[in-house]
Each structure stands twice: as structure tokens, then as C-alpha cells.
């Protein structure tokens, strides 16, 4: 039997809104630094979230990992952020919870998604590689 490393990727899209605003800055400074992204009502983005797995297919199932399980895990996380205002609807992004204490942006969204995605594991392939990436859609 020929065994090789296989890479697979699952892609999901979602939409979310937020406001770029720092409690450490005055209203005028926030406007200068963040411009239209400091709108009190927030602004939205469309995102693409990719989870990549790389490993040796299981000799019995032929799968690197069960994609149905990965889909279910990603959906659980997406249900938390999709079509939500991150500042108001997702506790993790509220002041004092998120490590940046405010200003939810792509880096903190990436950490949120990464930390809530169950890492796939297989006993027969401890080298299973797992990677998250997120990109913001252009208009």
C-alpha cells in the first residue's frame, strides 16, 4: 500500500460587524486613528475562514480526518460570530474579556476562532498538522 501525506482544507464564510474604538483615546483621537471604522453603529465585513489539515490517511477509512466532524466543529464556532456585532453580541470581545481590552479586529477574531476550534487528533498519526487562517473579503 502506498502511503503519503494528504492536505485537505475546509472553507467557511461569515459576516460580522464591529467598531474600532479604544477607550484609551478621546473621541477625537478615535476618529483620527480609525476614521469611518469608528462609526458608533459599527461597520461590517465578510470573512473567509480556512482550516487546513495535513496528515497520513487512516489505513482503514482512507481519511486524514472526518470532514463531517470538522464541519460540525466549525459550525459551532461560526454560530457564535456569524451576522453578529462582535462588540455587543460576543462576550469574548467585550471590554475586559478580549486580551486587547477593546478594538476587536482581525487578529483578535483569528485568536477567537483558533481557540474555539477543537484540534483534530488521531492516535495513529500524532503528526497531524492543523492550521487556521482568516481573510477579510474585499468589497
- Share of residues in helices: 25-40%
Shape type: elongated
Low-confidence stretches: none
- Main β-sheet, spatial strand arrangement: 3-1-2-4
Briefly characterize the structure.
With 139 residues, this protein is α+β, with helices and mostly antiparallel strands. It is 27% helix and 26% strand.
Give a structural overview:
Its EC number is 4.2.3.12. Pathway: Cofactor biosynthesis; tetrahydrobiopterin biosynthesis; tetrahydrobiopterin from 7,8-dihydroneopterin triphosphate: step 1/3. InterPro entries: 6-PTP_synth/QueD (IPR007115), 6-PTP_synth/QueD_sf (IPR038418), PTPS_Cys_AS (IPR022470), PTPS_His_AS (IPR022469). Belongs to the PTPS family. By secondary structure, this protein is an alpha+beta fold. The chain has one domain: Tetrahydropterin Synthase, Chain A, CATH 3.30.479.10. The chain is 27% helix and 26% strand. It has a 4-stranded mixed β-sheet with strand order 3-1-2-4. The longest helix has 15 residues. It is elongated and about 60 Å long.
Question: What topology does this entry show?
Answer:
Blueprint lengths: L5 E13 L8 H8 L8 E13 L11 H15 L2 E2 H4 L16 H11 L12 E8 L3
Parallel strand pairs: 1-3
Antiparallel strand pairs: 1-2, 2-4
